[in-house]
Amino acid sequence: MTELIGVDWGTSNLRVMRLGAEGQVLDRRVDPRGAGRLSADSFAGVLDEVAGDWLGEAPVLIAGMAGSRQGWIEAPYVFCPANAAGLAAQLARPVADRDIRIVPGVALIPNGLGDVMRGEETQALGLFEPGETGLMVAPGTHCKWIHVEGGAITGFRTFLTGELFAAVREATLIGRGMGQPGGHDAAFDDGVRLALSDPAVTAHLFNIRVRSLAGQLDPDGAADFLSGLLIGAELAAEATDRASPVRVVGEEQVAARYERALALAGFAQVSRVSGEVAVARGLYRIWKALP
Amino acid sequence: MTELIGVDWGTSNLRVMRLGAEGQVLDRRVDPRGAGRLSADSFAGVLDEVAGDWLGEAPVLIAGMAGSRQGWIEAPYVFCPANAAGLAAQLARPVADRDIRIVPGVALIPNGLGDVMRGEETQALGLFEPGETGLMVAPGTHCKWIHVEGGAITGFRTFLTGELFAAVREATLIGRGMGQPGGHDAAFDDGVRLALSDPAVTAHLFNIRVRSLAGQLDPDGAADFLSGLLIGAELAAEATDRASPVRVVGEEQVAARYERALALAGFAQVSRVSGEVAVARGLYRIWKALP
After folding, report:
1. Neighbouring-strand partners of residue A93
2. Where does the record locate the signal sequence feature (chains A, B) (predicted)?
C-alpha cells in the first residue's frame, strides 16, 4: 500500500516515487522536466502527466528546486540546526485543493551570507538515524558536505568543485590539451595529497603546468591530478572527525573518486548510498514528523 | 654612455633598453613580437630590427621567455636559492659571434615538481639591495610571490589568479551576468577578508552565488568580491612576516588592488615599482656579477 508519494524535483530532473509503509520505494518514474525548465504554472500539469494515476493513492511530498523562488511556490529557507520536525513545520502548499506539500530548503545562517541548499537537506536527514552523527557528501557541479548530529543538520558547505573542474579545462592555459580523468589513480592521489598538505589550491593549479612541462603528467594524468586537487581541497576544508561515518551520495564514477580521496584522508567509515534511497527515506521521515 | 643593452623578452612583449653606468634606463623601445609568437631562428632578426642601431654600443643581456625551451635557446633553470652570481654563471649564449646572453629561469626545487619562472627572477633581484629581505608580488595571469633574502631568491610561488578570475567569469554559473570589477571596494574587501579567515576558496566561490541571491552583491560587486577572494587566497597562503617590505610590480589598476589587499592583511611596508625599473636593475646586477 502506498503511504506517501515522494517527489524529488531537482533543477534538471523529476523523480516521482511510490513509498510504502516503511518508506521503501515501491515504484518510481523519472522525467527530464526538471524545475529549471518550468514556469510556476506548469508544475501541476507535469506532475499529473508523469504520475497522475498515482496521485490519488496518498499525500504528495516534494523536495528540491520546486520550492525555490523560481519554482512552483517558494518554500522559504529553514535555518541550521534543522531537523525533520523543523522542516515539516514549514512545508509549503502550492495548491489549495490537493494534498501536495513542498519541503523548504535549508540556509546555514539567517543573514543570507552563508550557504543554501534545496533537496540535499532531505537526503541528509534520510541517511542518518536520529541518534547518529555523520557527514553526507554529495558530489556534483556544486558539491555539498552536510554535517548531521542528533537528527539535525548542524552545518554544511558547498564547493564549486565540478563547475570549477570544467571551467579550468575549458578556459585556462593549463586546461588546454588536458585529457580525460578517471584512468590515473596515482596522479589523482598526488593531487589529493598536495591539497591536503597545503590549502593553497590556486597555487597548486599552476603546479599542473609545472608537472606537465617536467614530463611528470601526461594529458589524462593532468585531468586526474586536477580532479584530485579540487576534491582534496574540499577534504582539507572539512577537517572533521575522521571516525564519523561518511555517506557518499552520487553518481557511480564520481562517488568512487570521493571514496578514494576520503580513504586517503583517513576517513575510516565511508559508504555509498543511492540518491533515490536517501531522498525517499528523508521524505518519509519528514512526513512522519508532521504533527 | 651605454653600459649594457638590457632586454626583457616576455611571452607577449619585447622591451629593449639602453642602460647607463648605474643601470639606469637611458632609452627604451617596445615591440609586440613577444617570444610566444617567434620561432628560434627569428629572434636574432627581430632584435636587429627593433634595436640594431644600439647593439654595437654594449653587450646584450636578455631576461624572460627568450630563454625557454620554445624560445631562442634554452637557458636551463637555476635552483633556489638563486642569486645574481648564480644566474650570471649560467647565462646562455644563443649566437657564437656576438655578445648576447640570456638569463636562466629559476626553479624552486630540482625534481621538476615545484615551481618555475622566467623573467620575474631578474626583476626580484633588481628590487632588493643585497642585504635586504623582502617579498616581490607580480600580479597577472599567473601571479608570482617571490621571497628574497640576502641578495638571493629563497623561494617563490605562482598562483593562477588572473586566469582563474577569467575562467570563473567565462565558464561558470556564478560568472554568468557578472559585471566589471574595480568599483566596489567594500565587496573586494569582504572577499579578501573571507579568504584570509578561511582558505577554502572553492567553497567561497559558491558564496558569491549565495550573496548574489540574497541581494548582497550586485553584478559589479560580485566581480570585485571574486577578485578579493582570489587575491586574498594568495595572501592567506603567503603567511610571511608582515613587517618585511613588499614591492608590487605590475600594471597600475591591478597593482592598486594588491596594495589594498596587502594593507588589509597587515603588511606595513608596501610600495610599487615599475616592471621596467625592476628588470633593468636586475639585468644590471646580474651583469655586474659576471666574474
Report:
1. none
2. none
pLDDT tens, position by position, A27-75: 999 999 999 999 999 999 999 999 999 999 999 999 999 999 999 999 9
Determine whether the interchain pair B112/A174 forms a contact, defined as Cβ–Cβ distance below 8 Å: no
B82-118 as b/e: b if 16+ CB within 10 A: bbbebbbebbbebeeeeebbbbbbbbbeeeebbbbbb
Task: Tell me the β-bridge partners of A117.
Answer: A106
Whole-angstrom Cα distance, residue A122 to residue A114?
19
Q: Which residue has the cell 567509515?
A: A269
Interface of A with B (CB under 8 A): 111-116, 141-142, 157-161, 163-164, 166-168, 170-175, 198-203, 205-207, 210-211, 213-216, 230, 233-234, 236-237
pLDDT reported for residue A259 = 96
User: ipTM for the complex?
Assistant: 0.91
Domain A161-273: give its CATH code.
3.30.420.310
Q: Which residues of A touch B214 (CB under 8 A)?
A: 111-113
A141 CB neighbours in chain B (<8 A) are 173
Place of cell 500539469: A45
Q: SS3 of A193, please?
A: helix
Write down the domain spans for chain A.
4-121+274-288, 161-273
pLDDT exceeds cutoff 90 at B112 = no
DSSP run (H or E) holding B63: strand B60-64
